[in-house]
Description:
Elements: H1 2-22, E1 25-29, E2 33-35, E3 40-46, E4 51-54, E5 61-76, E6 79-92, E7 96-100, E8 104-107, E9 110-113, E10 117-122, H2 134-141, E11 142-148, E12 159-168, E13 172-180, E14 187-192, E15 199-204, E16 207-221, E17 225-229, E18 233-245, E19 251-261, E20 265-269, E21 286-294, E22 298-299, E23 305-315, E24 331-333, E25 337-338, E26 341-345, E27 348-361, E28 365-369, E29 373-378, E30 383-388, E31 392-396, H3 446-474, H4 476-497, H5 502-521, H6 530-539, H7 544-559, H8 567-587
Parallel strand pairs: 2-10, 22-31
Antiparallel strand pairs: 1-3, 3-6, 4-8, 5-6, 7-10, 8-9, 11-12, 12-16, 13-18, 14-16, 15-16, 17-20, 18-19, 21-23, 23-27, 24-27, 25-27, 26-27, 28-31, 29-30
Helix pairs in contact: 4-5, 5-7, 5-8, 6-7, 7-8
Amino acid sequence: MKKVFLILSILLLTVSTLFSQDVEFTAKTNLKKLGLNERLRVEFSMNQDGDNFTPPSFQGFTVVGGPSQTTSRQWVNGKSSFSKSFSYFLSPNAQGTIRIGPAQITVNGEIYKSQPIDITVTGAVEKPTDPNDVSFIAKENIHLVAEISKASPFVNEAFTVVYKLYVAERTSVSTWRETESPKFADFWSQNIDEKQFKVYEGEYQGEPYRYVILRRTVLYPQKTGKLEIEPLGLNVAVSVPTNRRDIFGRTLTKSTNIAVKAQKRIINVRPLPQPGKPDDFTGAVGDFDFAVRIDKNELDAGEALELTVEVQGRGNLKLFELPAPNLPSSLEVYEPQNDDKIRTNLAGMSGVKKQVFTIVPQFKGSYPIPPLSFSYFNPATEKYERQTSKGLVIEVKNGPTAAVGTVSQNGDVQKQAVVSSNTQFQYIKNDTNLKAITKERFFKSTLFWSLAITPFLMIPLAMLVRKKREAYVNDVSGNRIRKADKLARKYLSTARKNLGNQKEFYIAMERALHNYLKAKLTITTSEMSKDRISRLLKEKDVDDATSIEFISLLESCEFARYTPSSNTAMQQDYDKAVRVISQLDKQL
Length: 588
């Protein structure tokens, strides 16, 4: 008996080892070296079926096509073979050596990764310009332009960059996706949201074009010298006219996806002039009004008043500090509260920058607050300007008198001895020495008996929990179904989060549908043909309408790989998926 058990164990180990060694997951490309204006095809293939395929990030590339999935199963001379592949078409974003990272897939619970591939990208190569080529025609009629409002601003002076997508007549754009975003590393920046995209009439290089404003950004340069504004890149779905016509004589169009990029812009940021620069200058650039005020001039000791320091106008309000008031040391001053009301539009920041100080005098007397100055650079006049507030006086009429005079006759603040008052906080007890009048005995108390009996009551409960846990762990089939069902819910949630991102949305949607079927019909991924799914749903007495809707959802996921889809269509597909899964839950 022991020998039989040993032989079976060796056979199982051998089969398991051979099975794991048979899994091959590879990546290959059609080119190792290509020009900046060429495209690359990369294919990830495997010889065993798997789940949860995750492509690499393709950093350095723009995905212009894919994923395209193919599956093949053959029987030759009694031997079966299986292959499955995912293909992508990539467009490089820059020259140099770019690495395509590993993709990964799960086979029989194990995660496999493909090998990384290094691709060399050279400068643009000359390509034959076929006037009938759809991509060539589209690129000749679509242009992305970055317009800047000021080429030589001062440091911390506002200017804007506006990205416009120009489209020639008889050419249409259905969707676009941002593939490369400027980072504005040397600028303080804020995007101005476009509530809706409006089509304008304009000209591009003297020709009539229509254009759409995609993005407006307000920038404040934080460095001087020549600064680069990185380009914005888009992947655009375009329909262009062809030379063919339909039976009614109307021009036929063809659709394609092209990558467009705005030109790189360089601005020359001027430094602020050194002659005439005030010593107390803190970097304010703009046109401002400065004020200091108090809400009351007379009060009693112990009462509070508010002193406000504010700057209002137009300029870099978020990028400088307000001057601090010089207050007598005998006044109790709390940390200032910021009460900024600043808005940003295409003209830059405007509004009020404010600090409010709460002051509580402790002694009777007269407290002068000296004038406060604020200096800034006005780019309109290209000069430094200064504004000075008026001097203020706080009169404390009633209250204790300090041991030493609080101020001199000329208003200078003098140090004074601090008068301690033992009765100031008498009502607050910092130390207590309170004791309970009666003491409760622990032995034979309610707490004593509870602690003594509880462990015995927990024994049957622990046995029941252990039994349930063992049954749960041994239920291999049930665990697999629950895991697949959990994955289906997870991917459906992921699809909802990616509404608006066509590629990620339909990948998550397809995974949710596949994992749901695996949970409900106990089938594998390789068995998921539409005919088999329809047959199994019919055998389970699922009504025809629900079955048809489920198959149409799978087809929508497949079509979405090749054709652009609107946000409305994605929302409808998501609502349909939730409804169909809910119907299947009731019928299976």
